Amino acid sequence: MAKFEFLEIIGKTLTPERLRKGLSDYSRKAGFENPPFALFGALFIAGFVTMILAVLGLYFFLDISEAFEVSRTVFNLVITPLFFLFVSLVYLSVYFFIVISFIMVYFDFIIYKRIRSMEENLPGFLKSVSENLKGGTTFEQAFWNSIRPDYGELSKELQLVAKRIAVGENTGDALIYLGQLYDSDDLNRTFSILSESLLGGARISPIVDKISSELENTSELKKDISATNLNYVMFIVIVACFVSPFLFALSNQFLLVLEGFVSKMDSASIPQDVQQTGLFSIGAIEAVPVEPATFTLMSYVVIFLTAVFSSMIIAIIREGNIKAGLKYMPAFIVLSGFVFTVLNLFLTGIFSTLIG
User: Fold this and answer.
1) What is the dihedral of CA 30, 31, 37, 41, to 10 degrees?
2) Which whole-number Å values give the CA distances from 112 to 223, 226, 321, 327, in the listed order?
3) Whole-angstrom distance, CA of residue 318 vs CA of residue 120
4) How many other C-beta atoms can be found within 10 angstroms of the C-beta atom of residue 308?
5) What is the pTM of this model?
6) Pick from 73, 91, 138, 196: CA 20 to 30 A from residue 306's CA?
7) What is the pLDDT of residues 73-130, one digit of tens each?
8) Least confident of 88-97, 140-149, 265-274
9) 342 Cα distance to chain centroid
10) C-alpha to C-alpha distance for 176 and 234, rounded to whole angstroms
């Protein structure tokens, strides 16, 4: 425990004061009571340790003195410290940019999952509230009695709202706070309507029933739209995970064959009239413009990007939110990379057998 407290102290110390409020709100939406300062502290330490190791590795294994035409003394006293200071700053900038990006993406995905969970359980909660209201209880009592653990993330938020109401906060204000806390139209509209209905003194039970029914109809409509667009989803999956890797693997084999052909070709053995036709300047070919190894690396990069953007497009089609693409990305990336690797090996065996 003491170790984690030490990391938490480091995380709090190195986190600017102006960012702590935003981190607290962000962590609150992600379901954490407090920002994970211990994690931040561990990441800070890891960043500085890896930076020191990288600088030491460059110092012992990279000789940069030949790049500067100065005396050894000037090099050791001036250029070496400046060079490694520059390397350290660049490394830390890239490291923290990547770490912060991953943390934000992770938190956004957690928040998105919590919002979806709350939206799915909201109609059931409203039905329970309506039943309690019809039993003759007040809205506050019906609200409290309807909170059940099986509502998951929604029950946690509703308990916090109930506590705010219990300590004297206006019911409508507490509901509006919950509706505006998350980027969800369903939550915002639902609790705004309930707050306005309470303020206007209207009968709540019919309104709650109507909201619950509309939410269920909207959910069913979204499912129907998702099922209708299944053909588009399948097309994107096939292109991203199978067609694209196959084409890159085939192109890679073409480069390998061309490289082997060029290496064996002797321009002296080619008739002079063929070399000068202009249609087939075979004798002018000295090397393949792109190395197969470079093309293979580029193929992996392009396949990776294709998988990432395809998962985002599918998320928009199926769920209407690009953040949902995070749950598709790992499968898309692994599958497309695996297909490319297998096809590349398979085609290499076939072409090597045919060409000899």
Assistant:
1) -60
2) 18, 18, 9, 11
3) 16
4) 18
5) 0.72
6) 91
7) 555 555 567 777 887 888 888 888 888 888 888 888 888 888 888 888 888 888 988 8
8) 265-274
9) 26
10) 40
